[in-house]
Design a protein that fits this description.
Blueprint: E1 4-5, H1 6-13, H2 17-26, E2 37-38, H3 40-53, H4 60-64, E3 68-83, E4 87-102, H5 104-181, H6 187-193, H7 212-215, H8 256-275, H9 294-304, H10 312-315, E5 331-334, E6 337-339, H11 340-347, H12 351-360, E7 370-372, H13 373-382, E8 386-389, H14 395-405, E9 410-412, E10 416-421, H15 427-439, E11 453-458, E12 461-466, H16 471-479, E13 487-493, H17 500-511, E14 516-521, H18 530-538, E15 552-555, H19 564-578, E16 581-583, E17 589-598, E18 602-611, E19 614-615, E20 619-622, E21 625-633, E22 639-640, E23 642-643, E24 648-654, E25 663-667, H20 670-689, H21 696-704, E26 710-718, H22 721-732, E27 739-748, H23 753-762, E28 765-769, H24 775-784, E29 788-791, H25 794-806, E30 811-829, E31 833-846, E32 851-855, E33 858-863, E34 865-870, E35 873-874, E36 877-879, E37 883-888, E38 899-909
Parallel strand pairs: 5-8, 10-12, 10-13, 13-14, 14-15, 26-27, 26-28, 28-29
Antiparallel strand pairs: 1-2, 3-4, 6-7, 9-16, 11-12, 17-18, 17-25, 18-24, 19-23, 20-21, 20-25, 21-22, 21-24, 30-31, 30-38, 31-36, 31-37, 32-33, 32-38, 34-35, 34-37
The structure holds guanosine-5'-diphosphate.
Length: 912
């Protein structure tokens, strides 16, 4: 290293020469001018000085020395591997070595740091433990002190009480002595001495150490001997420290609040003990100190319950609830059905759990829905409980029993009349006339609303008219089992005579076994011919009285009112003959005539009371609905409070809209009403599933069981009048001692809805001879589970009914319709004749099965298929929803709209 001048060095370092000289002087090196040479040693010395002055105490040489040195070595060698004898293979082998040398002082330093950290941690944990232990100790001490003080307080209180007692006795004794000494003038003093605060403090009763008031200086309450009570008042909980009274030197007495605090602290302490790491601290709390002592507990709870015995369970620290150790299996009584919520309640589980269990079983039910018995049993078992059958004595039986018990004397009741007849013969006009002239009389405002029924008062009594003209309404009500009508008024226009619906009305009335009165209407017309009407009706076994029959014929005019009174008289006479009677005083029962949902008033039902008296406020079961009669209105819209037999009223207050034809009954309590309604709801749902109509087999089954003669009702429809009559005659003749064959309707044409409802009402079997049921009839047949049979050979019909009548279980030949195709278009081809472009609308059409061509539900041809094609191909069968071309053998008169029915004959063994 070459020597440089100070000036050069200053230049290199970038500092002024003077400053460098001054620094050199401070470092102890004397330089006079800037041109002097500075050696390397001097430069190092200067550097060391500068480092020192800037805080780096370590010598430069030492600092620069590395803390550790790593040595690496790599050797490469070759190894020749012999592979067989021929030639070897050379492999390069590289060995790498690495060694690190660490300065001893560094290692020692690190070790020192580690030990210091350990030491610090140890001290920290020690202090934590110590602090926790201290806290526990303090808490225990406080607790002990609190208890000691409480005991001392109790002792002092007892002591004070004893002292007070002694003092009182002493004073009494002294007063008695004084009184004895001066009986006249000292008496008042003696009587007032005991409670008077003017009495000087007695040394006999030293103030108890603990008593809070004793520590209160007299100055705070004012001077005077009266300010200081002679006996300590009992310690008060609300003795707050807000007086800032100086505390005496002795430890301050603990008030109950403080004691509670102390107890709380102890409690905290106990928690700490559980969390704490040292189990040996637990011994301090041995002896039940963590909890209230039995004595203290007794005191605490007796304070809460000052009268009576203290609750033992609370004193002993046990509560009344015992945790069940095994699942509780409950017996759940289930009737025909049960509401999900009730089921949950019976099992003491959440409703949602039951819903969940049902859901898992694939039953979607809400909490308010009813589940049937079987489903409920499955759920109960699923949830680990036991299902038992509910008492067979259901609500309905209770209801019937109560109603029977209520039976009283029967009185004459007004007749209920339904008006029937052919369209435009004047039913509405007649009803209107009667309503206008009879009801309005005397009733302010007259009829203001249509309620479906109304009553008129005539000279011979009250008559109730059902304002539901139409045969369907009549029959559908009867089908539900409601016998509303006592008399049918058959309106026949004198100028028109007997028409199809007139005959139908006669059939319905006959089937319902209701007497008929014929109103020969439109007698004001010049072309009126009442004899024609009579003749027409005689053919249907409606014979006028004057011709030796039992039916009253009343000529009238709904337009002029002529003969209307005579009609009302005729009704009254008929009613007398019928001897209509009902109990007046008693529970009301009857039938719903009409029902609807009113926006403002809720469900509104027009009911006809049939027995008893319905009163406002009665509870009702009405079909599957229930409720309380909130209000009742008559046909004039006037509020009424009661309605007797045969009187129609509008009722508000039901839970829902009942069906027309539903019966109602009043019950004494709502609970029963609700139960009955719910049970009925369940039963109605069930009965929809179980078809309950009388089938031929059922009749035979009943017959074989013996008993009286069975009636087999039949509805016979045929394609032509001749067949219908022949069938009716032949079938009626089959009546024997076992079975009475009763053809209630026989007619021409397809089976209509009216036929089906009539069959349902009379539990009749429908026989279709070369005719079919239309869509609406099929619906009624399906819903009511009616027995419908199609025939095409008269002999088959007779044979089947004969077998039934004779109770034989023979073979039955049934025609099964396997498919129906609707004709959409007809093409004429020179080769095949008429080809019907069809759409199969039901089942299959098969080429080798017999077919029938139907027009208006009547068979017009029976035969075979010539060909069955899909597009150009001949196929064996075509299924529902597909189009096809059908050519019928030897029949070319197929028209669009016709139906081609494909069927087969099967022989079945009849069974019960
Ligand atoms: P419904 O279909 O059976 O209810 O018959 P309506 O009561 O509607 O009557 C049909 C038509 O016959 C109406 O135009 C009435 O005015 C008329 N009409 C009803 N009764 C009489 C009557 O006694 N004399 C006359 N001349 N016309 C009547």
């Amino acid at each position: 290293m070459s020597d440089v001048t100070i000036k050069q060095l200053a230049l290199v370092l970038g500092t002024p020469v003077e400053k460098l000289l001054a620094q050199l002087a401070e470092a102890g090196m004397k330089f006079s001018n800037a041109d002097q040479i500075i050696s390397s040693t001097e430069k190092v010395k200067l550097l060391g000085f500068l480092r020192r002055t800037h805080g780096k105490t370590e010598p430069v040489a030492e600092d620069s020395a590395p803390r550790q040195i790593t040595l690496k070595r790599k050797t490469v060698s070759e190894i020749t591997v012999n592979q067989g004898a021929a030639r070897g293979k050379t492999v390069n082998v590289e060995v790498r070595q690495k060694r690190t040398y660490v300065k001893r002082s560094t290692v020692e330093e690190e070790q020192k740091v580690d030990t210091e950290r350990e030491e610090a941690l140890r001290k920290l944990s020690e202090s934590t433990l110590k602090r926790e232990a201290d806290e526990l100790e303090r808490a225990a001490q406080e607790k002990r002190r609190a208890e000691e003080e409480a005991k001392a307080a109790a002792a002092a209180a007892a002591e004070a009480a004893a002292a007070e007692e002694a003092r009182r006795r002493d004073e009494e004794r002294r007063a008695a002595e004084e009184a004895a000494k001066a009986p006249v003038d000292k008496t008042p003093a003696a009587t007032t001495s005991a409670p008077q605060p003017s009495t000087p403090p007695r040394p006999a009763a030293p103030p108890p150490r603990h008593a809070a008031p004793s520590s209160r200086p007299a100055s705070s309450t004012g001077p005077g001997p009266g300010a200081r009570p002679t006996s300590p008042p009992p310690p008060r909980r609300d003795d707050a420290p807000r007086h800032h009274t100086p505390r005496p030197a002795s430890p301050p007495p603990k008030r109950p609040d403080d004691q509670n605090q102390a107890r709380n602290k102890v409690k905290h302490g106990s928690h700490r003990m559980q969390e704490g790491p040292t189990a040996d601290l637990g011994h301090r709390f041995a002896g039940g100190e963590l909890h209230l002592t039995a004595e203290e507990r007794a005191r605490r709870f007796s304070r809460k319950k000052p009268r009576g015995k203290p609750d033992i369970s609370r004193i002993t620290g046990q509560h009344g609830f015992a945790k069940p150790t095994a699942p509780v299996v409950r017996e759940v009584a289930i009737g025909d059905g049960i509401i999900v919520a009730d089921l949950a309640q019976k099992m003491a589980v959440k409703g949602s759990d039951v819903v969940k269990a049902l859901f898992k079983m694939g039953v979607m039910a809400t909490i308010n829905q009813v589940v049937d018995h079987d489903t409920a049993v499955l759920v109960v078992e699923e949830l680990g409980h036991k299902a038992v059958r509910a008492d067979a004595k259901d609500a309905e039986t209770t209801l019937i029993a109560r109603n029977e018990a209520d039976q009283g004397d029967k009185e004459v009741r007004p007749p209920v009349v339904t008006i029937m007849g052919h369209v435009d013969h004047g039913k509405t006009s007649l009803l209107d006339y009667i309503r206008r002239t009879k009801v309005a009389a005397g009733e302010a405002g007259g009829i203001t609303q249509h309620i479906g029924a109304y009553h008129v008062t005539t000279d011979k009594g009250v008559i109730t008219f059902l304002d539901t003209p139409g045969h369907a309404a009549f029959t559908s009500m009867r089908a539900r089992g409601a016998k509303l009508t006592d008399i049918v008024v058959l309106v026949v226009a004198a100028d028109d005579g007997v028409m199809p619906q007139t005959i139908e009305a006669v059939k319905h009335a006959r089937a319902a076994n209701v007497p008929i009165i014929v109103a020969v209407n439109k007698m004001d017309k010049s072309e009126a011919n009442p004899d024609n009407v009579k003749q027409g009706l005689v053919q249907h076994e409606v014979v006028p009285e004057e011709w030796g029959g039992d039916v009253q014929f009343v000529p009238l005019s709904a337009k002029t009112g002529m003969g209307v009174d005579a009609l009302l008289d005729a009704i009254s006479v008929q009613a007398e003959v019928l001897e209509l009677r009902a109990v007046r005083d008693g529970r009301a029962s009857g039938v719903v005539v009409e029902a609807s949902l009113d926006k403002g008033r809720g469900p509104v039902a027009t009911v006809l009371v049939q027995a008893g008296t319905l009163k406002k406020g009665d509870f009702l079961v009405c079909g599957i609905e229930y409720g309380r009669v909130r209000a009742m209105f008559n046909e004039s819209g006037k509020q009424v409070t009661e309605a007797g037999p045969s009187i129609p009223v509008q009722v508000l207050g039901l839970s829902g809209v009942p069906d027309a034809g539903d019966d109602f009954v009043s019950v004494e309590d709502e609970r029963l009403a609700k139960d009955v309604a719910q049970q009925r709801n369940m039963k109605r749902r069930e009965s929809r599933l179980i078809k309950q109509s009388t089938k031929l087999e059922d009749i035979m089954a009943t017959m074989t069981q013996g008993g009286e003669q069975q009636t087999l009702n039949l509805v016979v429809k045929a394609d032509v009048q001749g067949s219908a009559e022949a069938l009716k005659e032949a079938l009626t003749k089959l009546t024997n001692e076992l079975v009475k064959v009763n053809v209630i309707v026989s007619g021409v044409g397809g089976i209509t809805e009216s036929d089906a409802t009539l069959a349902a009402a009379s539990k009749a079997t429908i026989i279709g001879f070369n005719v079919r049921a239309d869509a609406s009839a099929r619906k009624v047949i399906e819903t009511n589970g009616l027995d419908l049979r199609y025939f095409s050979i008269i002999y088959d019909v007779i044979d089947q009914v004969k077998q039934v009548a004779s109770g034989l279980l023979g073979m039955e030949i049934r025609e099964e319709i396997i498919g129906v195709a609707q004709v959409r278009e007809v093409f004429r081809s020179s080769k095949f004749g008429a080809v019907a472009g069809c759409m199969v609308i039901e089942g299959f059409v098969k080429r080798n099965k017999p077919i029938r061509v139907l027009r208006d539900n009547t068979v017009i041809f029976q035969g075979e298929l010539e060909s069955l094609r899909r597009f150009k191909d001949i196929v064996d069968e075509v299924r529902n929803g597909m189009e096809c071309g059908i050519a019928v053998k030897q029949y070319n008169d197929v028209k669009p709209g016709d139906q081609i029915e494909c069927f087969e004959r099967i022989e079945v063994q009849r069974t019960f």
